[in-house]
């Protein structure tokens, strides 16, 4: 196979991957959660593909917006920041939306950040968002009952 053919295949594969990622992001449904008086517009990652993609390669996210990951079962789920360019905080939530724990995560690291108990959801926000609003373990995030089921 010629060098040109190899390069063309590589470019095609990269373009296909980028198109697939853009398509997955474009199809993420939107929802609104709340914490006390704070409204939280979120993108919903409820499919295996959208949960895997998450906020990877994003250069910015509006300060008051986030992404909620909907898992298929309650478990001690873990998150990492591979290919994620933004510093984030993640709140792990039980099935009723109660915050189990909040972890700060640094960009482009592969450290595991895990729920301290069985979590059904993970809510990612810009780093410090929860702390700036005085939110902590035991507080309630409302609206999770309206989210689509994870699959």
TrEMBL record:
Keywords: Signal. It comes from the Bacteria. Residues 1-24 form the signal peptide. Pfam families: DUF192. This is Conserved hypothetical secreted protein. It comes from Azoarcus sp. (strain BH72).
């Amino acid at each position: 196979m010629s060098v040109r053919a190899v390069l063309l295949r590589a470019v095609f594969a990269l373009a296909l991957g980028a198109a697939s990622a853009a398509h997955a992001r474009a199809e993420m449904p939107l929802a609104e959660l709340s914490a006390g008086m704070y409204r939280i517009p979120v993108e919903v990652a409820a499919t295996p593909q959208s949960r895997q993609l998450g906020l990877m390669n994003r250069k910015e996210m509006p300060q008051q917006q986030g992404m909620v990951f909907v898992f298929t079962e309650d478990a001690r789920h873990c998150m990492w920041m591979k290919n994620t360019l933004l510093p984030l905080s993640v709140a792990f939530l039980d099935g009723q939306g109660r915050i189990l724990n909040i972890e700060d995560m640094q960009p482009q690291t592969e450290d595991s950040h895990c729920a301290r108990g069985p979590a059904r959801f993970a809510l990612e926000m810009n780093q410090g968002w929860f702390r700036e609003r005085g939110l902590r373990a035991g507080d309630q995030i409302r609206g999770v009952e309206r989210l689509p089921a994870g699959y």
